[in-house]
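User: Can you write out an input/output pair for a complex, sequences first and structure second?

Assistant: Here is one pair. Inputs:
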Amino acid sequence: MGFFDAIFGKQKLVPPAKNDRLFAISTADITLETQEDMKPVLSSGVCFRGVASGPFKQIQQDLQNLLNASGDLGLQSRPFEDNLGYKWILLTGADFQTLVTGMHMVSQTLLDQGYGEQLLSAVFRFNTDNDKPVYFIYNFKRGMYYPFVPRPDSHSHQRNNPDEMRLSNVLKNDLPMEPEFERWYAMWDLPF
Amino acid sequence: MKKPVWYKTDVGLNARMAITLGAMFLLYAAFVFFLYSVLRGGLALIIIIAVGVLIFQLFTSDKVAIWSMGAQEVSEQQAPKLHAMVERLAQQTNLPKPKIAIARNGAPNAFATGRDQKHAVICVTTSLLSKLDDNQLEAVLAHEMTHILNNDMQVMTLIMFVPMLAGMLMQFLSRMFLWGAMFGGYGGGGFGGGRGRGRDNNGGALAIMLLVLVGSAVVSAVSFLLTRAFSRYREFAADRGSALITGAPQNLESALMAISGQQVGRIPDADLRSADAVSAFCFVPVSNFRNQDEFSELFSTHPSLQHRIERLQQIQLRMEQAPRIHE
């Protein structure tokens, strides 16, 4: 924070969003596939809040144009609003690499349009060898990932902490891992 | 015995235990020598009393601990799952199956006690049983089984001998001073033995008592820190044992997390989106409060949650990498 910012009380209330380390999930993918027998699910999402519907439509439009312009990447985007009032851009891609690139494009578009403070998280899903979901959540404010493993067939919102801790340990060289467990917030009822 | 490929002796932990034990031994030897040089024959009496108390403590430890927790021994019919788990662990560790007790208690906790491996008791609280799933419970029981396997109860009782001796002396002497102040004169100064003679008997006895009192206080304080440190190392060793027995350190990690009373260092169940407005934007990082634990850890019998998890994760990482470790 600069001197004049301090004088004029322009302290930033929200730390700036960081999306540069989003790409680390590509390295993690290799470890997950070879060591854990997991497969990436080829749909993912960027979650953000508090964007009015007018600008949100504009963002969608810009994004779709961008994705179209990037041509044969085979990325599809779709808007979504969850029941907590948060907006999502859901992406599907032909392969995981493209999907990660697409997720970065989505977050960069939001950043470029000044919605950096609204950016919350990017979520990737993997499936275990018996098709149980494992999510990796990237927190834009922290610039770090953490695992989220909901217990399957439970609507009581329970998570599998042992598996989460094990995965974070396995991937700690691949992913910038959130070191403070108390920040590993859940994201229940994800749309993918 | 052939160890699995990922097995690695924790040299650091062993070294720290050895250093602490060495420091304790030096301190205790110095103290006993000091007592002998001032008290001579009186020392034998004190040691006999202290040994008596020690043996009494060891033999009643299981009953006292269970009684003080308000726990009750449970039969196989009353707690079949718990018995089955403990039985499996006993087979695996080649230990006689310990008795099992359950305490109705609000705090999730477990402990093992008993004078030897044949008379061991594992006690768990009802709140522990309700907070943990089966895997986590098994991990905690394996931790307690390791305490039994390592004879921790006996080792701790043994290293507490000299601090207990010092404590007894301190209590006894401070009472003597109190009485002395109340009734005037020092009642012949019982400890003086044959040293003080003639007119300066009282003065000499007083000086000796003061010396012993100060010495005991110093030994108590230093040995307090040493025994606490040693206790923490035994906890790390028991965590390690649990990891090796269950083969899944993550179960104990998450169990420790689930039963820790604090929010810091715990994985929340709350949703990121609902927490977003408050915590995710919170400016003061929670980690700023962490370091306060470092100092208070010096005085506690158990290492901090953070340190225990760190160590378990190191073990887990080695287990995960086992297929790629080439000897």
